[in-house]
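Researcher: Last one for today. Full complex below.
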Amino acid sequence: MNLLSEALIGAMKLLVGGYARWIGALPSARQRIYFANHGSHLDTLVIWGSLPRALRPTTHPVAGADYWGKTPLRRRIAGKGLNALLIDRSGSGKPGEALEGLRVVLRQGDSLIIFPEGTRGKELLPGPFKSGIYFLAKEFPEVELVPVYLENLSRAFPKGAWVPAPITCSARFGKPIAVGPEESKEDFLARARQAVVDLAPVPEAAS
Amino acid sequence: MSLYEKMAWLFGGVGVVLVVASLVAYRLSRSKFAERQPETLDNLKQRIKAWWVMVAVFAVCFTLGKGATIVLFAFTSFFALREFISLTPTRPSDNAALVLGFYILLPLQYWLIYTDWYGFFSVLIPVYGFLTLGIMAALKGETIDFLPRIARVQWGLMLAVYCISHAPALLTLPIAGYEGQNFLLLFFLITVVQASDVLQYVFGKMYGHRKVAPNVSPSKTWEGLIGGGLAAALVGTGLWWITPFEWWQAWLMSVLIVALGFFGGLTLSAVKRSLGAKDWGVAIQGHGGVLDRMDSVSFAAPVFFHATRYFFGS
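Model: Here's the assembly. Have a good evening.
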């Protein structure tokens, strides 16, 4: 762990708490792909920072190169601070090419944090998932797919805001899922999305 | 007695109370009580532990002086407001209002207290904050739930920042013949509020039958309020020698603090209920969140401040 990571995680915890709620899975050194809803630039930091310290060096958040690679400062924060893997989201390459970097990491035995919506949404629940997670699940069946629901982040630091507002956020980790042998791409993507949706806390009925 | 001698006696006294409480909890944990009511015992142990921490923090603040105390309360306000807003369904478009509240109004309020600018800190949030939040939300142009949305942010700021900030504001209150001893007033307020909370809890557990507002808080009973409140007022009266008050004035002030503390707890329970939660957060083990501990202070502090200022200020 380096100083930059410690400072980023410390600031994140002071502002938004960033608590981990292990609901359907426990922290484990097993190789995993964490997939979550995406509402803010803090998402990466909250999931990665809520993991136990020992798991962070081998867990790489996947981030868009168009944003995180744009300036030297952002590149430094993403690379050194967050241990992130930058990918090209422009879609200019051949289909499936964007996943190549992810495959390299998975072949090394490391874990990933991905946001299958591909971009930040404004709603409480995630939008439709892109197909990358399906191809990775097929190619790496031994890797656990852990759904994560990020609570409150789209409220604390919505798209277009300059600074995050201090609202307590948490990362809720659910029960791992796997792609079925006969399952179609669409079915799996819908089921993966539903696994994230199911983790969203239902407010207790006001009495 | 000098200020330091008084503080030594007070912290010594609180220390003795906590040592006794810790010993009682230890005895209970080795008796039959531990088998019959393990949860009550756990809760008791966590509360005692949290009080040790609070007393230690207070002692450090007293040693470091006014600046440290104000910073402590500023952070308390920060976490209380964070809890309030977290439970409140704000919308992403409220971000600018929240940023104004957290990063501008909150520090400004405590800075004004630090610089002793009474005329400004007493109107910053009720006047300027109130108007600005409305203007900002209107400029943003989102009219869905307009009034509930700005009202929530304003309530949060009033409770968590404005009201709570009147506790450290006691340090700046000029009282003839009491110069340099204002920390004792803050000690008086916090001690009476805490004593009232715990004694109402104890009396309520032992004798409680008739609920004050069953829909709002099942744990608040008339027996707890009156028994615990009178006992806490006695504690406050016994502290008259650290205040600028006569003993009977100390009693009246304690009754005022107890009553407002009670209504603070009750009102915030109602707010919590309407938001569908039991505790404000999980910050302090055994105590729920910061606001669960500060609800009584937030109501008692501004009224105690103004009563003292009106009758004893110079």
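Chain B touches chain A at residues 78, 81-83, 85-86, 90-96, 98-99, 102-103, 273-277, 281 (CB under 8 Å). Chain B has twelve helices and no strands.
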